[in-house]
Amino acid sequence: MILEKAKSIQSYILEHRRHFHAHPELGYKEFQTAERVAAELSALGLEPRTGVAVTGVVADMVKGEGPTIALRADMDALPIQEQTSLPFQSTVPNISHACGHDAHTAMLLGAAQLLHQEDFQGTIRFIFQPAEENNYDDPDRYSGGERMVKEQVMDGVDYAVALHQVPMMPSGVMSVQEGPIMAAADIFTIEIHGKASHGGLSPEMGVDAIVIAAQVISQLQTIVTRNISPTEAAVVSIGTINGGFAPNVVADKVVLEGTSRALSQATMQVLRDRISAIAKQTAEMYGGTAIYDITQHYDVTENHPEAVKVGAEVAVGLLGSAERLIRIPPTMGAEDFSFMAQQVPSVFGLLGSMIAPEVSHSLHHPAMTLNEEVLPLGTAWLAETALALMKK
C-alpha cells in the first residue's frame, strides 16, 4: 500500500521539511530551496528545469505513453518573525514558513520518491513554484503560479493536483470537495486627487480629497448589498487611508488601500467594475479625479468534479473511513494554485495537521506549527491521486 511506502520514507520527508523550515526564502528568492529540490530530482534520474518563473523547478517523470498529471507544491516563506522555539526554527530573521510551504515542498519530494518506484503509463510533471504568497517585485505583478502558467508550464497537462496543510483541522482528516474552495482576491489602491487650499481661509478654492475619500468609502459599502446577489459571497474592505499634511489645509491627495474577494470569477468582475466606477465618478462629482489600481490578484481556486471524485476516493482509501473525509465551507482566503486550476481540471486537497487545539495557530501566525505525523499521508495522497487520474 502506498501509505505504508510513504511511512517508510518519513525520515526523508522530515529531513527536507526541517531543512526548508530552518532556511526559509521569500518569493522569487527561493534560490537555495530550488537548488536542493533540483538536486533531489536529479538523484532520481530526472532532468529538472530550473529558473522557471524566476526560481521555480519543473521536472517530468516519463514512463511510456499516456496522460500528463501535474503535481504542484509552493516553496516560498513569509516575512514573519517565527515564534515557535522549534529546534529547527527559522535561522533567517523576520522570515519563516508560517504557512507550511516547507511541508508542501517536502511532501512533493516524497511523492517523487514513491512514484519513481511505481509502474504507470504517462508523465508526472513535478512543479515546485515560487512566490505563492505575493507578487513581490514582479514587473507584471504576477505571483508564481500565474507566472508559471504564462511560461507554459501547464501546456500538455491533463489534470493538476495540489495540497495544503491546515493546522486548524484535526490531524487524520482531509477535505476534498468540488466547486470553489478559495476565493478570487484583489489587493487594490484608489488614489484620489483634489486641489489644496487653506482650509480655514479659503476652502472654496480647493477640492477636498478627504471629503471625496469619505464618500468613496461609504459608497463602496453598497456594492455587496446592492450589486451582488444575496446568494453570492463577496467582500469589499478598505484597510488603510492616508492623506493630508496639515490640519488647516484642504488635502489634495488621499490613497486608500483595500481588498475585494468573491467565490466566482463573474462576481469578481462585478466588484472590479463597480469599485472603478464609484471611485472615478464620485471623484469627478466633487471636481477631483481617482485612479483605481489592482496591485495583486488571484483567481478562484475551483475543484473540478471529475478530479475531485478521484481525489476523494483516494483520500477515503488512505484515511480508512469516509467519515474522515470532511466538508468545510469555502474560504475567502486566496491561493494561486487557482491559476493552474483555471487551465485544466484540478483538485486541491486540504490536509488536517493540528497538533492540539490548545497549541494550534492559524496559517500566517508567527507561532504556527504542524503535526509532522501527517506528512506521509499527504505524500501518499499526492502520489496515489496522480496514479488514479492517470488511469482515467
What does this structure look like?
The protein has about 400 residues and is an alpha+beta fold. It has 2 domains: about 1-180 and about 300-390, 3-Layer(aba) Sandwich (Aminopeptidase); about 185-295, Alpha-Beta Plaits (2-Layer Sandwich), CATH 3.30.70.360. The protein has 11 helices and 15 strands. The strands form 4 sheets. It has a 7-stranded mixed beta sheet, with helices on both faces. The chain has a 4-stranded antiparallel beta sheet with strand order 10-12-8-13.
Structural Rg = 23 Å
The assigned CATH architecture of the largest domain is 3-Layer(aba) Sandwich
Helix and strand sequence: HHHEEEHEHEEEEEHHEEEHEEHHEH
Shape verdict = elongated
| Unreliable segments of 5+ consecutive residues | none
Output the number of helix runs: 11
The total tally of domains equals 2
Residues in β-strands, percent: 25-35%
Q: What would CATH call the homologous superfamily of the largest domain?
A: Zn peptidases
State the end-to-end distance: 20 Å
* CATH topology descriptor of the largest domain: Aminopeptidase
Overall residue-averaged pLDDT value: 97
How would you write the strand order of the largest sheet? 1-2-4-3-5-15-6
Helix content: 25-40%
Counting helices, strands and paired strands, the structural category is: alpha+beta
| CATH C-level category of the largest domain | Alpha Beta
